[in-house]
Design brief:
It comes from Actinomadura gamaensis. Belongs to the pirin family. The protein has one domain: Jelly Rolls. It is 4% helix and 48% strand. With 321 residues, the protein is mostly beta strands. The longest helix has 13 residues. Strands 2, 14, 15, 16, 17, 19, 22 and 24 form an 8-stranded antiparallel sheet that branches. Strands 3-4-5-12-7-10-13 form a 7-stranded antiparallel sheet, with no helix packed on it.
């Protein structure tokens, strides 16, 4: 998924200086952002005061949207560098095409994982024949320096491990939870899981105390560590937890995101994650010149032009403002 803002901010993130060593309960306020011509998303990372959760550096939540008789998601070809994209659906379908020649329709509870490495481009769209509802999340994972120049790749995993317990069903989309490991390739200690909470259940989700965590409510009204959350809300939890109490009245669904705090300092601008402003500027120039990022075949429309760089220098700083 692309950041389609015409004037994207440069985001300085990474580093461990501002990561609390103990549990916190920080409600992150979403920003509504248009995505293409027909879709609006709730942007939860990066946001004012919180830039990353582990290696997770970007979280968009969208829907449920009624797209019956509508084109649905239409995101033209755009570039990525230095990150992985994670496509996760609760309803609907998204057709992925990329410059490697991959063509894949991703459906609910299936993992679409694209590693951009040094450079890739892709498009995302609702298929011409699609369901009436679109609901999901699109997330980015920052690649560490040792992996960020790797060859680009696309993975699709229709079957993912599931952890079950009284009142809990957890699908592990990335990393490991309670001994169950996703087949998706990860480059840092990380976890992403979709938690289904049964009606009236009061569960405790096992966590790693060295990880920092956040939860995104996808459906239903849940109570996470005593904090009530409505759909679309995201709660940052900090580090130092061995378990997380979650309750749902009427049933609910959350995404659990976590990982070791990301030590490296980054510059994130538009669809690029780099280490310096010069690197970002080179990537923008390469995309506009038609170099390095390849060509997406089969999308009915032109590619996305890069916005202008901001007037101020892009510098890598800390995780929060």
């Amino acid at each position: 998924m692309s950041d389609l803002q015409t004037r994207p901010e440069a985001v300085a993130c990474g580093g461990r200086d501002d990561v609390s060593g103990g549990p916190v309960r920080e409600l992150l306020k979403p920003k509504t952002v248009p995505l293409g011509e027909t879709t609006e998303v709730r942007r939860l990372l990066p946001t004012l005061g919180r830039r990353m959760v582990g290696a997770w550096c970007f979280v968009d939540n969208y829907g449920p949207d009624d797209i019956a008789g509508e084109p649905g998601m239409q995101i033209p070809p755009h570039p990525h560098m230095g990150l992985q994209t994670v496509s996760w659906l609760h309803a609907g379908e998204v057709l992925h095409r990329d410059s490697l020649g991959s063509v894949q329709t991703v459906r609910p509870r299936q993992l679409g994982l694209m590693t951009s490495g040094r450079a890739i481009s892709h498009s995302e769209e609702s298929p011409r024949e699609h369901g009436p509802t679109l609901h999901g999340a699109q997330l980015w994972v920052a690649l560490p320096d040792a992996a960020r120049h790797t060859d680009p790749s696309w993975e699709f995993h229709a079957d993912l491990p599931v952890v079950t317990g009284p009142g809990l069903t957890a699908t592990v989309l990335l990393g490991e939870l309670d001994g169950a490991a996703s087949p998706g390739r990860a480059f840092t200690p990380i976890v992403g899981a979709d938690l289904g909470i049964a009606d009236g259940a009061d569960v405790r989700v096992p966590l790693e105390p060295d990880f920092e965590y956040a939860v995104l409510t996808m459906a239903g009204r849940t109570v996470v560590d005593g904090v009530p959350l409505d759909p679309g809300a995201m709660l940052y939890l900090g580090c130092g937890r061995r378990e997380l109490p979650v309750r749902a009245d009427g049933g609910g669904s959350l995404m659990l995101l976590g990982g070791e705090p990301f030590e490296e300092r980054l510059v994130m601008w538009w669809n690029f994650v780099g280490r310096s402003g010069d690197e970002i500027a080179r990537a923008r120039a390469d995309w506009m010149d038609g170099d390095r990022f390849g060509t997406v075949q089969g999308y009915d429309g032109g590619r996305t032009p890069a916005p202008a760089l901001p007037g101020l220098p892009l510098k890598a700083r800390g995780r929060t403002r």
